[in-house]
Amino acid sequence: MRRTDRLFRIIQLLRRSRRPVTGAALAAELEISTRTLYRDMAELMAQRVPITGEAGLGYLLAADYDMPPLMLTQMELEAIVLGAQWVAGRDDPLLSPAASDVLAKIASAVPAHLRPFVMAPSTGVPPRLISVKEVVDAATLRNAIRSRSKLRLLYRAGNAEKTERTVWPIVLGYSDASRILIAWCEARQGFRHFRTDRMLAAEALDQPIPESKGNLHRKWEEWRAAELARSK
């Protein structure tokens, strides 16, 4: 790892913690000697990076320190590119072009020596093989999630049975082949995953969801963990 990259890495490690981090802990994570770590800390302090502390006591970065947002490492860039590639390939009318725009903006903003990691990354995602036409606009679902409103769905199940459901939308997510609305279903009194390509209609109701987003999300995560445990 180049020294410049290592200095940025040290700052990132310090930004993660609200408590002092010892030089030994930093050196271990960076896989360098404590002697090298102390030299790096002295260099950062000489450059007026607001780090307090000293060898043996631990180091703390000032909470208001603002590092330029696009001072990214190679690995951070590859992680961003991989995620943006995945979103760009999901056929989402809003998020897919936004992901492509993000990649273009990052490529134009990062230093020249990092640009190849955006334009010709070493990692990639397979193309989406299934593209399904959807009737319901994803914006309707996202707006209901953001406004904390109930949704009325006309839904076609896998056996072709059509049902009308009133649901509390939580998250709009993705599987490998389809988009999925995670919601609490009033009719089933439980959490359900609704494929958006099986939705025949969706209407946001003037009825607020009677439970906080945090509690609902936490309960869904507990339900999902229980379901996964039962399937093993």
Structural commentary:
Helix content is 42%, strand content 22%. The chain has 232 residues and is α+β, with helices and mostly antiparallel strands. It has 3 domains: 3-61, Winged helix-like DNA-binding domain superfamily/Winged helix DNA-binding domain (Arc Repressor Mutant, subunit A), CATH 1.10.10; 77-119, no CATH class; 138-231, SH3 type barrels (Roll). It has a 5-stranded antiparallel sheet with strand order 6-5-4-3-7. It starts with a helix and ends with a helix.
The CA-CA distance between the termini, in Å, is 41 Å
CATH topology of the largest domain: SH3 type barrels
Query: Strand percentage, roughly?
Result: 15-25%
Strand order of the largest sheet: 6-5-4-3-7
The number of distinct helices, counting runs of at least 4 residues, comes to: 8
* Outline type: elongated
Helix/strand order: HHHEEHHHHEEEEEH
Average pLDDT level: 85
Sequence stretches where pLDDT stays below 50 over 5 or more residues = none
Task: Give me some keywords for this one.
232 residues, alpha+beta, Arc Repressor Mutant, subunit A, SH3 type barrels, 3 domains, five-stranded antiparallel beta sheet, two-stranded antiparallel ribbon, 8 helices, 7 strands, 42% helix, elongated
Summarize the structure.
With 232 residues, the protein is an alpha+beta fold. The chain is built from eight helices and seven strands.
Could you give the topology of this structure?
Elements lengths: L2 H14 L6 H8 L3 H13 L4 E4 L3 E4 L12 H15 L6 H15 L6 H4 L18 H10 L1 E8 L5 E13 L4 E7 L4 E6 L3 E10 L4 H19 L1
Antiparallel strand pairs: 1-2, 3-4, 3-7, 4-5, 5-6
Helix pairs in contact: 2-3, 4-5
